[in-house]
Amino acid sequence: xxxxxxxxxxxxxxxxxxxxxxxxSGRTFSTYNMGWFRQSPGKEREFVATISPSGGYTYxxxxxxxxxxxSRDNAKNTVYLQMNSLKPEDTAVYYCATSRVVRGTxxxxxxxxxxxxxxxxxx
Length: 123
Hints:
With about 120 residues, this protein is mainly beta. It contains no helices and eleven strands. It is about 0% helix and about 50% strand. The N and C termini lie far apart (about 40 Å).
């Protein structure tokens, strides 16, 4: 089973940028669609972005379109989330996960999950 480890979270001010990393183990990383989700205290986990195995297709939640960019480097077994123009409402624990389907936007389409990295945006 693939193991995922997120990193890159931190405390920033509104308007700042942050880049998240998701490092995957194993030799099958390039066969997975990858996604980013986030969860705030007292709220349901919500979809953020997803990317196809080759990186040719991406899809974003309306709340982050134009601000966030998902990308991947299969040679490094890593997926990234570039977060620009951050807002306080972006504060959450961010998780990466694997999927066998394209454009998966709900948790039920994802199989393997990391432990998350905290992102806090102050006003």
